[in-house]
Design brief:
TIM Barrel; Double Stranded RNA Binding Domain; 3 domains; 3-stranded antiparallel beta sheet; 16 helices; 16 strands; binds 3-methyl-2-oxobutanoic acid; binds zinc ion
């Protein structure tokens, strides 16, 4: 470090990010993302909300048991059961944190909590004390702080610090704040709270008005020393502040900020791709830092300038965030050991020999069709392998699509339903439409298609297509994704994956329950 103060990067992709409709992840997927976050050297990984469901508990526990370099955190409402469950899940962590929260805005206290301000302070203090009895590192959040009264925030925060909280988080839960006003709020809190020097002040901004990053940076400029953020800005509604934007803003404008992070920026693009491929949320091409066009100069004047002197139009180097590190890693003649070693190098450990065999077979099939196999291909291939094993209701076997100018497209396919093969057939407006209709002749799910998206995983016309399908049924939204060189087959796999997610049952999120 260079004498600058440290800005703690707290990643909540696995908790707030997972609260995006359709972004729920399996334990295996969460573990893979946690390992990518560890490689990125994030300081704190919020691994989930341990009390939310047995699956959430198991995922937080698995991450706490595995991750060694980052602190692992679980969210807990300011109630005893939540805090004890969080403590239990974090028991084996190398470094743990319990993050407890209660709402502090007049509107939340009156209508959601139905508590008087005095009762909220009392509950917060009790919660922090209990959390401290289970864990040395406790964070306290004032939910909806962005719309809370500053005098009340001063009072509850002082009490929480006295009770043992060492990080105080000021969330703009509904994305309502404006940068100047929010920065000023942080400045005043730090100035007015007598014991403020005993805690790190943190911010957690939502992006409803597109200001999550601007608000977070305004807070940093005014003394916040932790930012809560997510990869690709994933998160509830319009999302959270994007980690990659916060980190690169602080680094690129080191002349402006008095802080620095210890993030390994070269891992940013890999982490972004992993999160996008697991959640099925594509990254828009013009997204800062991680969008496909983020470093592409189209205009002749810009290209000419960059060739003559790079800094004329470039404020960051693409390679510093991990672009252009695409490597041709394996080919048709690569063996099982090389395959396993490459998976391990990119942070993927398959659970069993059966999974490895299955993934290796897929790799060989892919290598027959595609000469150069990149890390992104391996990620997609392994996602498919793990999905098939975990969600066995519907499986893809084969399809045949006929699409000819002037003729109505037709699809015949074979699926497995609970292990038994079934055949379906349908016409449709196009080959993909015919495929989805053919699947529905078998599944009859009653779900509505909300989104269909295709992305090329790598460059070239032999790239695998990665498809995202979003289905809605009875108010529940799920995403599915699939990858294949044949984009119609990728579409079928994505649709079946979404159906499998629908089958796997809904999970109520306790953060929405009040308290
Ligand atoms: O947005 C929010 O207020 C939260 C808290 C639980 C930190 O996610
Ligand atoms: Zn949030």
């Amino acid at each position: 470090m260079s004498g600058k103060e440290k800005l703690i990067i707290f990643d909540t992709t696995l908790r707030d990010g997972e609260q995006s409709p359709g972004a729920s992840m399996t334990q295996e997927e969460k573990l893979r993302i946690a390992k990518a976050l560890e490689r990125l050297r994030v300081d704190v990984i919020e691994a989930g909300f341990a009390i939310a469901s047995p699956g959430d508990f198991a995922a937080v526990k698995a991450i706490a048991d595995t991750i060694k370099e980052s602190r692992v955190c679980s969210l807990a409402r300011a109630v005893e059961a939540d805090i004890r469950r969080a403590g239990e899940a974090l028991q084996n962590a190398n470094a743990a944190r319990i993050h407890t929260f209660i709402a502090t805005s007049p509107i939340h206290m009156e209508y959601k909590l139905r508590l008087q301000p005095d009762q909220v302070v009392e509950q917060a203090v009790k919660a922090v004390k209990l959390a401290r009895s289970l864990c040395d590192d406790v964070e306290f959040s004032c939910e909806d702080a962005g719309r809370s009264q500053i005098d009340f925030l001063c009072r509850i925060i002082e009490a929480a610090i006295d009770a043992g909280a060492r990080t105080i988080n000021i969330p703009d839960t509904v994305g309502y704040a404006m940068p100047q006003q929010y920065g000023e709020m942080i400045r005043q809190l730090l100035e007015r709270i007598p014991n403020a020097d005993k805690a790190i002040f943190s911010v957690h901004c939502h992006n409803d008005l597109g200001l999550a990053v601007a608000n977070s940076l305004a807070a940093v400029a005014n003394g916040a020393r932790q930012v809560e953020c997510t990869i690709n800005g994933l998160g509830e509604r319009a999302g959270n502040a994007a980690l990659e934007e916060i980190v690169m803003a602080v680094r690129t404008r080191s002349d402006f900020f008095k802080v620095e992070t210890t993030i390994n920026t070269q891992e940013i693009v890999a982490a972004s791709r992993l999160v996008s491929s697991i959640t099925g949320f594509p990254v828009q091409p013009n997204k800062a830092i991680v969008g496909a066009n983020a470093f592409a100069h189209e205009s002749g004047i810009h290209q000419d300038g960059v060739i003559k002197h790079r800094e004329t139009y470039e404020i960051m180097r693409a390679e510093d965030v991990g672009w252009n590190t695409n490597r041709m890693v394996l080919g048709k003649l690569s063996g099982r050991n090389a395959f396993r070693a490459r998976l391990e190098a990119i942070g993927i450990t398959l659970k069993s020999e059966q999974e490895l065999n299955d993934a290796f077979k897929r790799f060989k099939d892919l290598a027959d069709k595609k000469q150069e196999i990149f890390d992104e291909d391996l990620q997609a291939l392994v996602s498919d392998t793990q999905k098939e094993i975990e969600n066995a209701r519907y499986g893809f076997v084969s399809l045949s699509v006929c699409s000819q100018t002037g003729e109505i497209p037709n699809c015949s396919l074979v699926l497995t339903v609970d292990g038994t093969e079934q055949k379906g057939q349908s016409q449709g407006a196009g080959p993909v439409d015919a495929t989805f209709k053919a699947i529905e002749t078998i599944a009859q799910s009653g779900a509505t298609l909300e989104l269909y998206n295709v992305n090329a995983i790598t460059s070239g016309t032999d790239s695998q297509g990665e498809v995202t399908v979003r289905l809605e049924k009875g108010g529940r939204i799920v995403n599915g994704h699939g990858a294949d060189i044949d984009i119609v087959a990728a579409s079928a796999k994505a649709y079946l994956d979404a159906l499998n997610h629908l089958e796997s049952g809904a999970k109520a999120h306790p953060q929405n329950d009040g308290v």
